[in-house]
Amino acid sequence: MSDIVANIQKLKKERNAVILVHNYQLPEVQDIADFTGDSLGLSIEASKTNADVIVFCGVHFMAETAKILSPQKTVLIPEPNAGCPMADMITREQLLQLKKEHPKAKVICYVNTSAEVKAECDYCCTSANAIEMLENAFDEDDEILFVPDKYLASYAASKTNRNVIIWQGYCPTHVRILPEYIQELRKLHPESKVMVHPECSGPVIQIADQVLSTSGMLRYAKESSAKEFIVGTEVEMVYPLSKENPDKIFYPATDLAVCPNMKKTTLEKVEISLKNIVHEIILPQEIIERAKKPIDNMIKFKKNAQATKK
Ligand code: 13P
Ligand code: SF4
After folding, report:
1. Which ligand 1 atom sits closest to the C-alpha of 197?
2. Coil, strand or helix: which one is 149?
3. 57 in contact with ligand 2, CB cutoff 6 A
4. Per-residue pLDDT tens for 111-170?
5. Can you give the residue range of the structural domain that contains 41?
6. Cβ atoms of 26 and 236 closer than 8 Å
7. 30 plus 56 within the same structural domain
8. What CATH number is given to the structural domain containing 54?
9. Is residue 205 a part of any domain in this protein?
10. Is residue 284 assigned to a domain?
11. Are residues 12 and 27 in the same domain?
12. What residues contact 172, with CB distance under 8 A and at least 6 apart?
């Protein structure tokens, strides 16, 4: 074990901390996790632990979600500038304006939103349960505002008969995955299964065998009899997939699909974060209470969010 990893383990015990790591983080950061998983699965797991401190290795909205679900705990994000550009594509003010234009509509937000935006919504969803949420939480004649991801919203709406008004946000990392990259790889590996994240564009989703959240990809890879997979999401996803399935081969759809914000967290920053108890997520009590409502309304229906104990 390297000195830095040993020191992180020591500090973790002293602080009674738990380290949560998203599937897109650098491999060396994934290796020190107590739990790895998808954004919501990790936050739910964190709320169940007895730890006093949560170190969230991911992006800002994920650490905020952990704070909303565990307001009495100290939630730290080792790199405070690790944001999610998609989450930043809708502000509270923009959402309030949209609601004004559609006064009867109900609002569902992707978990990739700020706490301030969540506070103005009725329901939350993740990439794992967007279809299920549209079907279960709304009626056919409801007017539904879905923010901010246009690709997740279009995909989920196409699988239901719900009336969805779609905000035009997107993930700059997932739009770098093009259908031609997948078609080329398919020619080279004709036996492979193609699994893509619902943040990918419509043409990519159309040619995929499976459209899955990151936790869904881990489950599918394990259960499938296929031996090779083309993976249409952030490149680092092949690391947990390969680690959990050493007998199978995973090809990233393209090496261009890198989320730079996910790469900002390093072991050194995790060590500093635990040593100095920085950078703490602080949210006004009122926002915590109001942002919890859409998340609770989702957890009632939740089946698929997932985190894995390491
Ligand atoms: P998951 O919830 O599927 O892990 O996705 C989070 C994310 O930011 C994908 O880009
Ligand atoms: Fe946000 Fe896209 Fe990065 Fe996920 S991959 S955190 S949606 S920018």
Report:
1. 3
2. strand
3. no
4. 999 999 999 999 999 999 999 999 999 999 999 999 999 999 999 999 999 999 999 999
5. 2-83+262-279
6. yes
7. yes
8. 3.40.50.10800
9. yes
10. no
11. yes
12. 85, 86
